[in-house]
Amino acid sequence: MNTLPPVHVALAGIDKLISSLDDALAALRVLPRNATSQRLTAYTSFISGATPCAKSPTGRKILHIVLLDNGRSDIARAPLFSQVFRCVRCGACANVCPVFRLVGGHRMGHVYIGAIGLVLTYLFHDRKIAKQLCQNCVGCGACKEVCSGGIDLPALIQEIRARFASEDGSPAPARIASLAMRDRRLFHTLLKFMRFAQKPVSGNDGFVRHLPMALFGKQGFKSLPALAPKAFREMWPVVKPNVASPRLKVALFAGCAQDFIYPEHILAALNVLAAGGVEVTFPMEQTCCGLPLVMLGEAKTAERVARQNMAAFAEDCDFIVTLCASCASHLKHGYARMLGKDAEKFSAKVMDFSSFVHKYLPPEVLPLERSGEKVAYHASCHLCRALGVREAPRALIRRAAEYVPSAEEESCCGFGGTFSAKFPEISAELMRKKLANVAASGATRLVLDCPGCAMQLKGGADKAGMPIAVNHIAELLQRQSTRG
Ligand code: SF4
Ligand code: SF4
C-alpha cells in the first residue's frame, strides 16, 4: 500500500477487536446496508502488517496499533450498558431520529451522533454535556427499531436520565410532578382545582381561549387544551353501560389525559364496546400510568404509581384495555422492565383499544357503515414501534371510511410528553411537518390512538385554522357503528 504514510498509527477501542475474519465481514455487510443501503463502504482497508518499503532501513514502513480501554472493560460487564458494544457505527439511529434530523450534529457533541452518540457521550466523554443531550430525546423509539445491533437505545437514554436525577437531584418541575403524582387523591384533587382555576380562560370548545397570546411565548404554536368540565371518572356512575350476556369483560385504563381532558374518547369507546357485547369496568383507584415520571427521571415515584395501578386492577377481567398508546406501552413493557415478575400477570392482560376491537370485534360482531370520507391516520410512536401495532388501526379505518395514507405516517408528531414544553421550537416543526403531510393527503379527518398526539395535532390544526377534524379512532368507530 504505497498510499500509507511511512509511520501509521491506528487507534481503536478494545471493543473493535473481533475474533475472526468471518465476524468482521458480517459487520462490514451490516454497516453500509443499514447506513445508506450500499453493499460496501468506500473506506474499507485490510492491513496485515507493516507494508514493504524499499526506502526504509528496515525494508518496511512503521505500523503501531494502539488499543484503548478507557472504561470499556467495566461497561462490558454492566448488564444494561454492555449492549452498546453491538454498535457497528452505521449511523442509522441518527438518520431516523426526528430531533437529530432537525437540529443536526452540532447539538450532539463530538463523540458520535444520533441516539448512540448521546449514550457514548455519557459513557466516554462528558457527563455535563450528556445531561443536556439526554433531554433532547422525544422517546419515539425510531432508533431502536432501525438499529442493526438491536440496541435498546431509548431504554439506555431513560436509564441515563434516571441516574442524573438520582445522583444530582431532580430539577424543580420534576420534583413537583413527583410529589403531586405519588398520591392519587392529591393528584386528582389538584387537577380538579386546576379545572376550577381555568374557568375564566377556557372557551366552550375544549381549548384555552381567553389569554393574551404574549403569555404563551414559544408555546403559542398550538392551541392549548382545556380540562374538561367533568372528568370521565365523575361521569362513570351515570354512563356505566349495562351489557346483557357479555362476550368478554374488560377493565378500562383511562390515563390522565383522557380521564381529565378528553373524556369524549372514552365515552365513544364505551359505546363501541357495548355495541360489540363487551362488559366494561372502571377501577376508580387507578392513577397516572407513570410514564411522565419515567421521562422526568423520577424512577422511584414511577414504580410507586405502577404498584398502585396494579393493585387497582386486581379484580378479575379478560383484558385491561386503554385508549392511550403511551399508557399501553408503559403498562405492558415499562412495568415489566421496572417490576419484573411482579408485573407479569398485569402486563399480559394489557391491550390497546385498536388491537382489541380489531381482534375481538370483527364486522359480524361490530357492523360499521362505511362512509366515503377521506380519513388519514397518525401512527403514535408508542403504538407502532413500542407495541408493534400497525395493521389494526388501519384496518379499522378501512372498515369505517376511505383510508388515505399520508407521507411519514409513522413519524413522531413532536409531542413527547414534557418534550413539547421543553423544546417548543423543535416540537412545533415536527408538528407542522406532520400536519402538512396530512393536508397533502386530501383527508378531511385525521384519526389517532393517543391523547398526547391529539393534544399536539388537534391544537396545531386549530391554531393554523386547518379544515381538518382530529379524532380518536374510537370516535370514528362510534360515528359509523350501526348499533348506535
Ligand atoms: S427515541 Fe427517537 S428522539 Fe430519542 S434518540 Fe431515539 S430516535 Fe431520537
Ligand atoms: S446504535 Fe445501532 S443504529 Fe446507531 S450507529 Fe450503532 S448500530 Fe447503527
Write the layout of secondary structure elements.
Elements (H helix, E strand, L loop, with lengths): L6 E7 L7 H16 L25 E7 L3 H6 L14 H5 L1 H6 L10 H12 L1 H7 L8 H5 L6 H16 L3 H10 L2 H14 L34 H8 L8 E6 L1 H6 L2 H13 L2 E4 L9 H5 L3 H14 L6 E4 L2 H15 L4 H6 E3 H8 L13 E4 L3 H6 L4 H10 L1 E2 L15 H4 L1 H17 L4 E4 L2 H14 L4 E4 H8 L4
Parallel strand pairs: 1-2, 3-4, 3-5, 5-6, 7-8, 7-9, 9-10
Helix pairs in contact: 5-6, 5-8, 13-24, 18-20, 20-24, 22-23
This protein binds iron/sulfur cluster (2 copies).
The site of one iron/sulfur cluster (SF4) has 15 residues, from helix 3 and helix 5.
Any overview of this molecule?
The strands form 3 sheets. A 4-stranded parallel beta sheet has the order 4-3-5-6, sandwiched between helices. A 4-stranded parallel beta sheet has the order 8-7-9-10, with helices on both faces. The mean pLDDT is about 95. The protein contains 24 helices and 10 strands. It is about 50% helix and about 10% strand. The termini are far apart. The chain has helices at about 20-35, 70-75, 90-95, 100-105, 115-125, 125-135, 140-145, 155-170, 170-180, 185-195, 230-240, 255-260, 265-275, 290-295, 300-310, 325-340, 345-350, 355-360, 380-385, 390-400, 420, 425-440, 450-465, 475-480, and strands at about 5-15, 60-70, 250-255, 280, 320, 350, 375, 400-405, 445-450, 470. Helix 5 runs antiparallel to helix 6 (about 125-135), helix 5 packs parallel to helix 8 and helix 18 packs across helix 20. The protein has 3 domains: about 5-70, no CATH class; about 70-170, Alpha-helical ferredoxin (Fumarate Reductase Iron-sulfur Protein, Chain B, domain 2); about 230-480, no CATH class. By secondary structure, it is α/β, with parallel strands linked by helices. One iron/sulfur cluster binds next to helix 4, helix 7 and helix 8.
